[in-house]
Design goal:
- The protein is an alpha+beta fold.
- The protein has two domains: 1-39; 41-187, no CATH class.
- It is built from six helices and four strands; from the N terminus they run H-H-H-E-E-E-H-H-E-H.
- Strands 1-2-3-4 form a four-stranded mixed sheet.
- 22% of the residues are buried.
């Protein structure tokens, strides 16, 4: 019985090898690749208004676009790492330590969610309302109540973005979003 399985296995192995050899000869003879190459995706930097830490499909026309030049300025601020005052640095560390040094939500209400994104080293504010100005002010006020100064809030940095559903509701209204806190002056 065991001999039967060995003979069957050998015949099966031989059969598969013959098929592979025929495919190889046929493809070389007719200049046909064995594997059809697939289209390689082109990397695209999304300028949509969803969270920088999320993965989203690229949008050529986001529902509510960033203001002119603000995306470049935001990228510059994130990469520059402005130094914080001793007090602001202590508050920043307290906020991060409250999350165990990991990414997570620090505060939320019906208008916004303040999150720390460890990978980028930034504080993000997801706006949950169509009243962008009010939500930004409330989020900044919360950070001030934690002890942050205006200068510290600008240098953390804090980046604002719209919740996807809110952005979809606001599509076509002609509004733009400045992802940085208002009244910040960067050297």
């Amino acid at each position: 019985m065991k001999k039967k399985y060995i003979i069957f296995g050998a015949i099966f192995f031989l059969f598969i090898n013959i098929i592979l050899m025929l495919l190889t000869v046929y493809s070389k003879k007719n200049n046909i690749p064995l594997v059809t190459p697939t289209v390689k995706p082109t990397p695209i930097i999304s300028t949509s208004i969803v969270a920088p830490t999320s993965i989203t499909p690229p949008q050529t026309n986001p529902a509510v676009p960033y203001g002119p030049g603000s995306l470049d300025k935001t990228t510059e601020i994130i990469n520059k790492h402005y130094p914080l005052s001793e007090n602001d640095l202590a508050i920043k560390n307290t906020l991060i330590n409250s999350l165990g040094g990991k990414s997570g939500s620090l505060f939320s209400n019906s208008d916004f969610i303040i999150e720390y994104a460890k990978v980028l080293g930034i504080f993000q504010v997801q706006i949950l309302t169509e009243n962008i100005t009010s939500a930004k002010k409330q989020a900044v006020d919360w950070l001030k109540r934690q002890g942050m100064t205006d200068d510290g809030i600008c240098k953390l940095p804090v980046v604002f973005y719209l919740n996807f559903d809110v952005a979809q509701k606001m599509e076509g209204e002609g509004k733009t979003l400045d992802p940085l806190p208002d009244n910040c002056i960067y050297e």
